[in-house]
## 1
Amino acid sequence: MKNYLFELKEGLAISFRAIRTNKVRAILTTLGIVIGVTSVVLMSTAIKGIDNAFQTGVAGFGSENLYIDKWEWFSNNIPFWEMRNRRNLDMDDFKKFKETAKLPVAIAPTVWSSQTIKYKEKNVPLLLVQGTDNEYIRTTSLTFREGRFFNEFESSGGREVVVLGSEIANSLFPRGSAIDEIVKIKGHNFKVVGVLDKQGSWIMGNFNPDNQAFIPIQNVFKYFQAQSFRSITIIARAQNKNMVDATKEEAISIMRRDRGLKYNQENDFSINQQETLLKQIDTVVGVIQIAGLFITGLSLFVGAIGIMNIMFVSVKERTKEIGIRKAIGAKRRTILTQFISEAAIICLIGGMIGLILAVILSKIVDQFLPTSVQVDTIILAIAISIITGVISGFAPAYSAAKLDPVEALRYE
Amino acid sequence: MNIINIEHIAKIYQVGSEEVHALADVSLRIDKNEYVAIMGPSGSGKSTLMNILGCLDTPSKGLYDFKGTNVSQMNDNELAKIRNREIGFVFQTFNLLARSDALHNVELPLIYAGVSSSERKERARIALNHVGLSDRIHHKPNELSGGQRQRVAIARALVTEPAIILADEPTGNLDTKTGEDIMALFNDIYELGNTIILVTHEEYIAEHAARIIRLRDGFIEKDEPVSKRYVPKKNGASKL
């Protein structure tokens, strides 16, 4: 063991000397690994960014929430036409559900409408206007930059009040408060009662509360669209995570009774959960991850071939040296260690440079996709570069190790 | 005491469909503190014999007993260990590592022997001092003359205190004067009680040894002591 440490140390020293001697060659060879590691790190950082964006976006839905809907959100089993032919959910369904359901701690109807919102000469086109009631806020973890959500009185009275997402407030009221200002939605006046804090990530698009406005649900039906135009979604919040399943069971039975389904009929509604969304996102991100890492892995592979190639050249050039070392007592493993460590060092240097490049480049990625190079990615990159070196160095090192000393000494 | 005992060894190479007997049948013994020259024209098998004696190669047939152990059946790593501990090589072309200084070249066998860094440096300095190069320890081979390079090689051969020193045409790349200095150094080493095997094709170099083994066509033609051994003046440790 002690011997081996000396040999390893000697191997490393030789490697550094060899790399210094062939600087240009080492730099060119390293470039392949630099590019490989940079792309692997950048890709995994970007993927992490995508994942984070999804996760924070989805977190807004709340894991205790059940979304009773005409549509199954991410369905692979129920055919589209079957869902399309389902009866819409309307306010009567909501009222019956609210009267009957015992387990949920908050129940709110929602319906959306795509509208343009105006304030003086400014406008935000085609945003998602959510119609709901005052209990909606209790199904979310939304917080307010200023003002409040509309109250029960405003909600049941169908008052023309609106709560704005942060992005919309920023666009319409770049400076100053939005509270008590009057905005126009489809020509109707609404008074701003609250502005939300910045919530989600852009990846959720219009589903990000930052890009939404909330008004009492009656106003949607009164001003924008008939109740029959679009099915509503009933949000039911379970008391806690453990109660989600029971709450779901209760919801199913109430809805079946409400819709007058016979025992042999399928549910003509769906109960959606954040969990299904998360699963779907995990699948999507997983596919991106595999595809992305495979593609970037290819560039690393090309780099590894470059290392292997140059190591074969190096072994050929130093045949005589290998012969001398063997003659004075270097064992096979000594030579093997020497050349593998040389390849590993080249790769490690490349990996370090690649990592630095990736960190710099990730600052650019960060502009579009909030992310940063994580410690585990750094460790991964270093490990990958060393492993690449060891793997690509092995074949040349092995060919060096098994050289016949007599032949090697004769080599000029 | 017997260091080397070879009995009926042969080395057969397969060249195409033909068998070439580089060594046909060789038996010899070398004792401790002998100074032996191996001579022969090219093709006589002396390189093959040297490779086998130096444990760089193994015989196809026969027994090679080195200090009581049978090395003819050893594997690569065991042979490497014997070469490292028991054999000091001196080559015609010096075979130093070009990128390492004299000290590191001499240290190298001790690295493979697992000697600690401080002891290695100490022993390498002593060996270099012994060959008269104490003021050249940080010179690289290309900063040294041919004679000085060969002295570094000799220091490297001595540093592990091996059982035999195996010198293959050690003066072949040197002018006559420098060659004579190197032979004087070998004589000093011999007189200190070391065992030296010298491979050469020059009669006057061989006459520095106490015994000459002549090879021809893979057989020992003659094995006899040198009647009038040439003993050079003691100047081994002098500057070249």
## 2
Amino acid sequence: MKKVVFVLLVLGLVLSACGAPAAAPPQGDSGSALRVGWLGFPDTLNPAYAFLTESYTMFDLVYSTLTTEAPSGEYVGLLAETWSVSEDGLVWTFNLRPNIKWHNGEALTAEQVAWNINAFITNSDGWVTNYSYIIGFVEARALDERTLEIELEYPISNMEFRVAFLYIVYPKDFEGFTTPEDLQNFANFSPIGTGPFKISTLDKDRRVIILDANPDYFDGRAKLGQLVYQTFDNSDALIQALKVGDVDFAAEVPTSAFKTVETFEGVTAVSISGRSLSELILNSAPDDHDPAPNRNPAITDPAVRLAIATAINKQDLVDVVLQGQGVPGVGIIPPTLGGGFWFNSNLTDVQFSLDEANRILEEAGYVMGTDGVRAKDDLRLEFRLQFPSDSSNYPRAADMIANWLNQVGIKATPAAVDPDSLVVATNPNADYDLVIWGWGSDPDPDFMLSVMTSEQYEEGGWSDSGYSNPAYDELFAQQQMTLDENERQKIVWEMQEMLFNDRPYIVLWYDDVLQAYRSDRFTGFIEYPTGIDAFQSLMNVEPVQ
Amino acid sequence: MNESWLLFKRSLSDFWRIFRRNRMGMTGAVLVLAAVMVAVIAPALSPYTPATVIRDEAGRGLTFAPPSVHGPLGTDDAGRDVWTQLVYGARISLTVGFMAGFIAMFVGSLLGILAGYFGGWLDNLLMRVTDVLLVIPDLPLMLVLVATLRQMELKVSPLTVLILVIGLLYWTSTARLVRSQVLSIKERQFVARARAIGAGHFHIIRKHILPQIMPLIVANTVLILSTAILIESGLAFLGLGDPTQPSWGTMLNFAFDRNAISNGAWWFYLPPGLAIVWVSLGCVLLGNVLEEMLNPRLMGHHLEGEARVVKTEAGRG
């Protein structure tokens, strides 16, 4: 759901490049401890202001939400047992399960859940990561110990999905903060939740997190006794650790190593069609944006955009960059959303052809110069091609794209950029030409579509392309309020087509989730769209007898 | 041609006579020259360009193909011929190394001569600047500079940025070395005599000092070359090279990023590594021998005539 923003400065790169393999994780009750190796570490365990995917992995284990996604993509109750909505669609009533306890032994009350939701609504500057899920909420009320009512401003089409992203925290830990900054600076490294695991050790220096199964979990105790998360400095070290059995689970297998991991003895490698996409962002900020966009104005020319799209061989990108573990991209909604329901299958992608791209540019008046770069009057087709420095896929993709573009007279200069700087360069500075980046989509199309609305193009908003189209914004508001799924689908498809034709993004590919585990030691993993390490899957994992 | 330069030429031929008998020096020279040759004739050594993707019958990129399946050195993660990348990479690595090395030599020599010859406040100023640059760790400084400069909208290519940053930061040791030599030479009698008969500063530097320190500068340049190539590889390995013009460092960067090690693709990461070792070893051998042979402490003034050669030969045993 969140753009993965790893805070990895150039100097950090040096350290990780020379870093020694990570220390072996501490041994717990090894019979029932699953040792997970991953490449990141949570920046915070405070759901108010978390950006790294690792933080969300921890939230899922420690906290609970009212509803949750089933492997099928449907929403089922978690804290909520049943729910109903009023005739006019403005009041939702959730009945909580009995016997839900916090990690400290106290019972959870509807009052506490209401406190959470009201905090998200009234202090939305503080709880920024929840903001897009509570738009349209008016107030939450506890009717009794186990009944919660949420009042809405207008009917919301995806309510069950929305509440599945609101982690319910222990109010006493969060009540004391007076300003949004105080709230966001709280790292919450010993969280109290209601989830299936509780954190017993969090060692930031050794980058180890140990979680114990919560014996009082309302849905029954997890079959595992412990989860041990160990951060690795580089993916080769992680893969070797999996191979020799120092870890039992690799939470992220790099695409370029997946085929090798598949051949490891005693290891099962899993590839799941995920919800991520990678795209080429074309600077689409309006000319009157403040600050004024700093870009080569040729990037806004529809002919140039079409030529760029035509000169990119997406199948080659999938074959090489993803080593076949993904599919070429078309629209902004990945084909997995709602089992394909939201994906506009009428869109046919531009056919790759360097000749055609050359022809388009020729026709648009861009004449090939003696140095191999096309120009129209003084406007040379020279673009910066930037990508975040924390990815192992994007350098290769940038290299390939730059080579294709060079062959049609477009000079693209690839450069890796620190992700934090790239966030500012794209939004609000509009200081870029082309950027390769990616998104992890929500299960509902709402989030990906929201990224392209003009109201998101302001500091702290999600838009990076700067796309601004009143007709699109209008449709976005409409789809949020359309309760009939088929009606909503029509709007969502139309929005995808709009984006496809205007090309603020050229979607490059939808990548698979690649994970691997020691199948000679553990069994019971369940495939979820986010991977086989969804908390429901981990609860079901047990040692091989 | 004036007398000093004639003498310089003669000492060069003397030098060659001794040098060619030095096995280490010759090895170094051969290593470096071989690499330069490969870079020059790169297109003749491969039927492909670095960007050509080798494809299988189905038209898909042949990725991570071992040497047994394709070419002398297999393919990389993008299905490109590793041998081609290696020989073309020599061009980039050596160009950046040589250009940066020469810039460093030029700046270092100029500042060293100015500081040493004129002394006083100028010496003080230049040497304090040198001190500052010497205490700042090179690699992190260069990383930050290259990364920052590349993010600004400069109308120069990434390679030029690399060359300038390495060249303009790596002159400090040359400057110190040259300065100390100039300090000692300018006190010698023949300089005093030249000054006494009215020679100007420029004349003295050009005719009396430069010929004396030239060999030192040459030896030092060769050593800086190897450092410049290593730094270029280091920066490119960290992703600061130009991916569209692969150097050996860029190849290593991709090999590391794309898990060549886990894939067992030794043909992807060993060749560029060995190529870097090849050139740096050549430069270091050559530079060390040159430095040893041309050490000014073993060298008399040209007015002392043939004595120098005898001494040097004796010194080398």
## 3
Amino acid sequence: MISTILIFPIIACLLALLIKNKAFDTFLVTLYAVVHFVTTMMLALGYGNKTIPYFAVDNTNLIFLIVLSLVFLMVAIYNAGYVKNFEFPDKKISHYSFMILIFVLSMTGTLLSTDLGVAWVLVEATTLSSAYLIYFNRTKHSIEAAWKYVFICSIGIALAFVGIILLNISTGSVNSLNFVELYANANHFNHIWLKAAFIFMLFGFGAKMGLAPIHFWLPDAHSEAPSPISALLSAALLNSAFLVIVRVFKIMELANCSEYARIMLFVMGFLSLFVTAVFVYHIKNYKRMLAYSSIENMGILAIGTALGGAAFYAVVLHLIGHSLAKASFFLTSGNILELFGTKRIKSVNGLIEADGKTGWLWVASFLGICAFPTSVLFVSEFLIVKEMILQKHYLFMALFVILLTIVLFGIGRVVIKMAFGKVSEDKVKVIEDSRHKVCVWMYIPQFIMLIIVFVLGIYVPPLLNNIIHLSAAGF
Amino acid sequence: MVNGFIILFGLTMLYLAATSRIIAHIRLLIAQGVLLFLICCGGYGHIDLLNFGFLAIETLIFKGVVIPWFLYRVLKKTHSNRDVAANIPHFYSLVISSIILLVSILASNYYISSMKLISPMFFGVSAATIVISLWLITIKHKIISNVIEFITMENGIFLLSLSVAKEMPVLVNMGVLLDVFIAVYILGLFVNEINKEFNDLEVSHLSDLKDYENND
């Protein structure tokens, strides 16, 4: 069963290389999304073989896989409409589809890998494939963003490799990087080397996850990539890196070094919130604003993981909610870019008047991401605050709430300014000319994802609840 | 014997810090590749044949021939011979690099000598290489210099992984190979593309994307 999700894209890639046709290659991406989703659902329901060498579905990664699968399906549907507006030769679009397939394959592989070495190689593969996608528009700015992305993430991933070597030193006689074996022997590890290894791995994979202070690539890359890719980067790639950190964190817990790991995560989490709160006011580009919001939410995940206990459940809920709401937000920003032809916040006014559906999706995505009840993010953030109170971190709780409010105000101000009011006169003609570019497939995915986000806030189906609980127990 | 090669490897980093001609840096990468191969040979007693073959190909062919050749081609195409505009004069960067190397070796001798698993010389030199490379990346102005320093950092990490080569599975060697792949394929490709776009390989061209400016 697992082999289906891992082998299908390889065959699809070969086909995409052989047949350079825009419609066919886009269809391949959509087909892979459907196959990915169906296979994941069957795995979630307990059908099929869950283990092959180096890859397995376990309690911890199942929910990550479900989120990736759902987001990818939605992005693929959107992409089918989005690609129609491309004015590139078929060959280039074929490369685009090829790289999406490789990108999703490497993210899936990262989630499913049972070995730290394999996970590391695949995280690096995500950098290679997504760098091309960020550079897809071939502008000066996109090359700058792609360069920063490749360079910072490569250095990060190289440092993570140093962490793996140090982990190997700390393990002593254990000659394996298999997570199960590492967990089983964790209490014999040398603490000094293990702590050094954790710092390197946290910084390495944290760079990929977008945690401050190593987040600099993220706003550039997310804002310059085509919108479906921004959605995949924000809603799927960051989670994959987070899962690797969670796995390493588990080793620290079992080796009785968790206090140290918690402090590191806590500091980086708050730093991420702080960075977002400071920078969100200066932003003139709405896609960059969404990217900063991703940094903030990754910070919340880090803080939740550091708290432990009931916060693990909140972290998993937050991960689901953030991925869906942010993917919806980024896809809607793609619609706005098609309509207005600019990423400047200043140039976008009266979105609801220009295109009602896009306008309301923009507002609803904002409500989803800012934890407005009944968004599932409300529940997760509430649980994290509650856990802070229970653990008597009153000062941190106050800081957490204040920083979130500042970020909320910063984003809310921009969203309201863009959504309401009158369309400026110079934009009326531009919008009329580009209205045909936004087809029905560019609304439906966001709509579905937002419904899920708002329903999960009041009702979590028992099966999903069970999966979330099992996943939280594996942290 | 092996220790001698490791010290030579450490000294190449000082040379890197003290020179500005990029062609010299590329020759230095060849030297590092050969030194890494010799260090592998020195430790042959511990490593099985398959692993040894793999490490030899990686060091001699990739690090010693393919990457320098590739960078040489980029250099010829872009005519960027010197990285003269470094923020810090070469004399000072030589002094700072020497201090980093000295402190790393002393510190690792002091702290690690009690552990049997890893040799302090390996650890000290590779840690110094990583730190010096990261530091040089921050002060150099040409993209090709940054790529070269990235590769020397990879070499430092490779040296560290050699010290535990007996324990490490082949898989991690593959990881190092993928690093090499990144260096050649993506960084090289980008250097070409950036050169086409900006007619020059200055890092300062790549600072347009800011929060407070309007980027369409």
